[in-house]
Model the fold of this input.
Amino acid sequence: KAGVTQTPRYLIKTRGQQVTLSCSPISGHRSVSWYQQTPGQGLQFLFEYFSETQRNKGNFPGRFSGRQFSNSRSEMNVSTLELGDSALYLCASSLYTGNTEAFFGQGTRLTVV
Amino acid sequence: AQTVTQSQPEMSVQEAETVTLSCTYDTSENNYYLFWYKQPPSRQMILVIRQEAYKQQNATENRFSVNFQKAAKSFSLKISDSQLGDTAMYFCAFMRTFQGGSEKLVFGKGMKLTVNP
Done:
């Protein structure tokens, strides 16, 4: 069965713009988590969605938001982009919230110029 | 708050040799899981092995095994018979669990492993 699909794979945006990243989890998985990966800060948790509800949120400013649709697909949005938002954004899917087996996508590489 | 420390930023090993990657963590929780993830150049994080904190027996997955020392809060990964395809970044991670749910994965900074032919 298909793995976790993240689109787009690469993205270049200008400071001040906004961006939307998409994540399609493995079929049947209902929990989606997002992580930001940067060389300086490493991997940091953004948020988790399960059954269209945000279950957990990391320590990121309000410019970072997300949502989950009824088919479990998730989007994350970053508004008013800053140079420091340049990162690899990884999505992970699990069968349900609390499941310890998470499957990651290949990420979206966002570059803010 | 939980923290995960990987003190070795980089290691190299010859093909077919054995290598051990170290990880320490800090938590006051009793219920948690520990993980090793591999991130090859393709960028996809791949679960290598996981360990439940309440299980005393060390987890093993083919060539990968862990040495879990709960009292010392140490969780090292041993890779036997290293292969070129093992070349990747390796991340140690912690996840607190509770009835009906779990929290986020907390990752270490990672360690770059290079397997040389």
